[in-house]
């Protein structure tokens, strides 16, 4: 695209927002002609009645059971086990409940249930192609209904990640291959942003996940795939989050505060994942390098990396700093380009600090400065870097210097 022409093809999920909104799941299943729903979640959340019961009641007689094998690692084996449940119980809808891992596993299940193949064949094919092979275009995949309880901003996306290990015990985390899958059929059919369910999530978990969702809004603005529509939603999303996120760590978060934050996450991720582009980029590439090599949650990796990555980015390219400054309401017509960049970086660091998240890489257990070359190589090779701003030429030495800054 250029300034006067662009193509934007996007068919997001229907968004249902409000307190107690999961009570409408059954009517939404009925509207789509679906009658056999399976909840996909993790073992911890499945034992929390205040979360499970509203969703179970909301699905009503259409609920056939719960698959609670999800783990943060999103292993292919987990999805394969879930796909067997789908086939055995004739499931036609998956209700992904919880964090981003539940949604990613639900998407993998949908793919694997679409073709009945041995797990080893699927794994070998992923290793060969570095992506999960999808059923033919004419095959309808199992519908996905997303019920997030965290804030990474992954529910309006057609993309999922997968860890390719059939026997992860004893393997070093960094040695387990990662892959992905993307297809318009994996966009959730509906998303339920239930404020009462978000309120059950501990604040530290909400804060960590929110940093990931917040960074998506920032990256939507400087990605090379930006367009006027995503500019508008991302600016609004960043504004809502910058204003609202500090409330997460307050003594109590009101329903109005929570609604503002969840609306911000929805706006920030709107258009993130489309058939021809995925718009998360440089910050996410650094986050991947850190989170895939150490026992640290993705949002924490983003908290440590984001201000330093933005500082590096603004040294290399414009990075649409004026638009970012507008989103943070720190734009000053008399400021120099460097002052504008500094104001944006300061606003991101301020948000991280308000969420009470770590700011130094050395705080992550197992990190050593001798690891920087390996981490930098992972960033340079990360496929998300391809969506970075035009003109950015990431070099090994430059990326190592960024890790040095965040140390």
UniProtKB/TrEMBL annotation:
GO terms for molecular function: alcohol dehydrogenase (NAD+) activity; metal ion binding. The keyword Acetylation does not apply. This is Iron-containing alcohol dehydrogenase. The keyword Oxidoreductase applies. Keywords: Oxidoreductase. It comes from the Archaea. Residues 12-173 form the Alcohol dehydrogenase iron-type/glycerol dehydrogenase GldA domain. Residues 208-406 form the Fe-containing alcohol dehydrogenase-like C-terminal domain. Gene3D superfamilies: 3.40.50.1970, Dehydroquinate synthase-like - alpha domain (1.20.1090.10).
């Amino acid at each position: 695209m250029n300034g006067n022409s662009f193509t934007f093809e996007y068919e997001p999920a229907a968004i249902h927002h409000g307190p107690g909104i999961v009570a409408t799941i059954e009517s939404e299943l009925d509207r789509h002609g679906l009658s056999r729903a399976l909840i996909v979640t993790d073992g911890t959340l499945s034992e929390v009645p205040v979360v499970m019961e509203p969703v179970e009641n909301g699905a009503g007689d259409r609920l056939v059971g719960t698959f609670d094998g999800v783990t943060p690692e999103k292993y292919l084996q987990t999805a394969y086990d879930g796909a067997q449940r789908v086939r055995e119980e004739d499931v036609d809808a998956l209700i992904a409940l919880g964090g981003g891992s539940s949604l990613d596993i639900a998407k993998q299940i949908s793919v694997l249930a679409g073709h009945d193949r041995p797990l080893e064949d699927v794994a070998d094919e992923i290793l060969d192609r570095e992506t999960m092979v999808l059923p033919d275009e004419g095959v309808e995949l199992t519908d996905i209904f997303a019920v997030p309880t965290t804030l990474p901003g992954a529910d309006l996306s057609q993309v999922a990640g997968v860890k390719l290990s059939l026997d992860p015990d004893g393997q070093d985390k960094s040695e387990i291959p990662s892959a992905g899958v993307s297809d318009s059929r994996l966009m959730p059919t509906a998303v339920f942003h239930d404020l009462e369910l978000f309120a059950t999530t501990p604040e530290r978990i909400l804060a960590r996940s929110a940093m990931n969702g917040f960074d998506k809004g920032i990256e939507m603005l400087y990605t090379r795939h930006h367009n006027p529509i995503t500019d508008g939603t991302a600016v609004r999303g960043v504004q809502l989050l910058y204003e609202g996120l500090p409330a997460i760590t307050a003594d109590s978060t009101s329903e109005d505060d929570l609604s503002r934050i969840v609306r911000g996450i929805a706006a920030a991720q709107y258009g993130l994942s489309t058939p021809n582009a995925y718009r998360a980029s440089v910050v996410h590439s650094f986050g991947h390098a850190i989170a895939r090599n150490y026992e640290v949650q993705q949002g924490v990796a983003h908290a440590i990396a984001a201000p330093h990555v933005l500082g590096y980015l603004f040294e290399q390219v414009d990075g649409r700093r004026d638009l970012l400054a507008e989103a943070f309401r720190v734009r000053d017509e008399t400021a120099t380009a460097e002052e504008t960049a500094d104001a944006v970086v300061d606003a991101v660091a301020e948000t991280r600090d308000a969420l009470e998240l770590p700011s130094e890489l050395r705080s992550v257990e197992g990190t050593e400065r001798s690891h920087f070359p390996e981490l930098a190589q992972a960033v340079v090779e990360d496929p998300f870097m391809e969506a970075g701003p035009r003109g950015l030429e990431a070099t090994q030495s430059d990326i190592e210097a960024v890790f040095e800054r965040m140390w």
